Amino acid sequence: MVETVSYAVSESNSRGRQKSEDSPQGRSEFQRDRDRIIHSGAFRRLEYKTQVFVNHEGDLFRTRLTHSIEVAQIARSIARRLRLNEDLAEAISLAHDLGHTPFGHAGQEALNACMKDYGGFEHNLQSLRVVDQLEERYAAFDGLNLCFETREGILKHCSLENARQLGPLGERFLNNRRPSLEAQIANLADEIAYNNHDVDDGLRSGLIELNEFDAVPLVAAHLQEVRHIHPDLPERRVVHETVRRMINTLVTDLIRQSEINIAAQRPSTLEDVRSAPAMIAYSTGVNEMQRELKGFLRTHLYRHYRVLRMSAKAQRIVSDLFGSFMEDTRLLPPQFQSLAEYDRARAVADYIAGMTDRYAIREHRRIFAVEEGV
Ligand code: MG
């Protein structure tokens, strides 16, 4: 393994775990975090959670699981090139969406609306709640007892009100400080992954047509190049050749600009990183191009009437479920019933957030369809 730079997160500058444990044998603390995340129940459920398309809409679309794996791949490459802690970047990436509700953003918005009077619902905070409290795998503690830096990376953003309740983890939001470079990388790798796979999925679904991308500079530039080099290539391959070039452009630009920023800030410790401005960034030109792509996907894909129609259905399922459980907590599975004794709304939100798309649909049917059995 390449030696990391002095301002990378390492076992020696880590703030460690909340509950102290023996050191791992034959793997690093951050590899252990990654392994715990992969073995968690919440990680397996990502397979059946929507990214943009609901899980049953097609077998080839991204799910939260394949999305998270793509994020981890991109984050690892960038971390390695910058000689940062690759294992940490990977662990954060694999965990970053663990708190997502079923049905993607539609589900999250619906649950947040239901939770309006009970402290709200935020998927980022929920991911942290999953690894800190909800996973039940160890005799000695709740959650996965991950290292501070992994948890810090999972909590990408958070309101000041919530930050005040989070102790050391919330401090950076209150003091306007940055997380590790590994966390910054995972954050941008998330964006690179979804912008690119949503181009691919958008085309595959037929909701967007390839020539519509002529108006989007980041796609158009690469598309033209592919068409020029391979004039007779079938469209599916044109798409893949284009998307892989886009990912390469974004990753390469991000590495180069981040190197420039790091050289200008000259951090020598992790604390220098935390007090400096964010150093992992695109160049201005590429940043603008990827913002344009994001805007295009918002109007042409995320707000496509067929996506919105599915979202409306999803929102109804989530709010129906919430209403029923709030009214009668005896409908909850036993472990959530006991949680509900302390905080009814939060227990209901935890249960719903943990559901996969198909589980939520089935549960809705079990509660509302008269002809459905137990
Ligand atoms: Mg994500």
Describe, in plain words, how this protein is organized in 3D.
This protein is mostly helical and 374 residues long. It has a single domain (29-308), classed as Hypothetical protein af1432. The protein has helices at residues 29-38, 41-45, 64-81, 86-95, 104-114, 123-134, 148-154, 160-163, 171-174, 181-205, 217-229, 235-265, 270-275, 284-302, 305-327, 334-342, 344-354, 357-368. Helix 1 packs parallel to helix 4 (86-95) and helix 15 (305-327) crosses helix 17. The longest helix has 31 residues, at 235-265. It is globular, with a radius of gyration of 21 Å. The relative contact order is 0.13.
Structural key phrases:
374 residues, mainly alpha, Hypothetical protein af1432, 0% strand, binds magnesium ion
Topology:
Layout lengths: L28 H10 L2 H5 L18 H18 L4 H10 L8 H11 L8 H12 L13 H7 L5 H4 L7 H4 L6 H25 L11 H13 L5 H31 L4 H6 L8 H19 L2 H23 L6 H9 L1 H11 L2 H12 L6
The structure holds magnesium ion (MG).
The site of magnesium ion has 4 residues, from loops.
Helix content: 55-70%
Instruction: Provide a count of the helices.
Output: 18
CATH class: Mainly Alpha
**Class from secondary-structure proportions:** mainly alpha
**Terminal Cα separation, in Å?**
53 Å
Question: What's the alpha carbon Rg, rounded to whole Å?
Answer: 21 Å
Say what the CATH topology is: Hypothetical protein af1432
